[in-house]
Amino acid sequence: MDYFELFAQRVGDLSHVANVTHDRLTCAARRGELMLVAPVARKWDIDDAIAATTSLTRDTHRESCLGAIIECDVDTLEQLHRLNDVKMDFKNTVSKIKSQPDGHTLFDTIRRRQQDNDLDLARCYRMVGMIEPGIHLASFSWSGANRTVKRLDRQAVFALINDSANQLSEETRAVLNDQLNHCADTHFARVDRARYSLRLNLKIGSGKEAERSQKVVSGPLFTLRTPGDVIHREKPDEENPTLRAQRDDAKVSTEPWSTALRLHRYLR
C-alpha cells in the first residue's frame, strides 16, 4: 500500500470538506441562519467562530471562541457531521500509518514530503462540538485543579538547576546550588498544574428522570435550539490561583522551594 498517496488523499478530502463547511457556514451567517446565543458572544463575531470550527492550521481563534453556543438549522448540523466523519477517517489513517513497522519514522517522512505541511494535527483531529436535542439546561465551568507531581532525587534536581534550557541566570543557579548543598532533603517534588479547561455541564431531560453529564469544550458548540439560559463563568486567573487550605495528610509543601523550577519540598 502506498501510504504517501493514501495520506495525501485523506488530506485532500479533509481540506475539501473543511472548505465547503466554511463556505456554507459563512453563507448561513450572511442569511441570518446562525445565531450567537452564549453570553460571551459579544466579545467576538461569527467569522471568528467559523474560523475556529473549520481551520486546520494553528491560529488564535479557538481560545477566543471558547464558551460560544451557536444556533443553526438541520442542514448546517448535517454538514458539520460530514466534517466530523472526514476528520475521523483522517485520524484513522494516521493511526494506521503509525502502527506499521517504523511507523512514526514513516509518518514523519510523509509529513516532510507533504505540500500542506502547515496542518495542525490536533485541529485536524478535533471534532466539531454539537449539543444534541433534548438538552434543557447548560452551564459552563472551569476545571484546572488537577496537578502532576514528579519525585526527583538530589542528582536530578542538580541537573535541572544547571540545565541551560531553564534559562536561569547565573546568580539564580548559584543561589539554588548553594541551597541544595545546605539542604538535607534527599528528594524534591516537581509540581505541574494542569491548565484550566472549559467544561459544559448538561442536563438531559427533566424531573427525577433527568440525567447530567459533562463535556469538555474545545471550540464553538452548535445546536438546533438553545438549551435554556446558558450560565457562563469567567476563566480563573492561572497566574494567581485560589489557594486551598492544606490537608493534614499532605505530603508536599504548598510553598515552593524554587518557584522558577516548580520544585517543592516533601513534608516530614
What does this structure look like?
With 268 residues, this protein is α+β, with helices and mostly antiparallel strands. It folds into 2 domains: 3-133, no CATH class; 147-193 and 238-266. It contains 8 helices and 11 strands. Strand 10 (252-258) and strand 11 form a beta hairpin. Helix 1 (3-30) packs antiparallel against helix 4 (74-98). Residues 245-249 have low confidence and may be disordered.
What are its keywords?
8 helices; alpha+beta; 2 domains; four-stranded mixed beta sheet; four-stranded antiparallel beta sheet
Number of strands: 11
Please report the distance between the alpha carbons of the first and last residues.
60 Å
The description of the largest β-sheet is:
4 strands, mixed
Helix proportion range: 25-40%
The stretches of 5 or more residues where confidence is low (pLDDT under 50) are 245-249
Widest β-sheet, arrangement of strands: 1-2-9-3
Number of domains: 2
Structural class: alpha+beta
In DSSP terms (H or I, runs of 4 or more residues), the helix count works out at: 8
- Alpha carbon gyration radius: 24 Å
* Mean pLDDT reading: 80
Shape: extended
Strand content: 15-25%
The ordered H/E elements are HEHHEHHHEEEHHEEEEEE
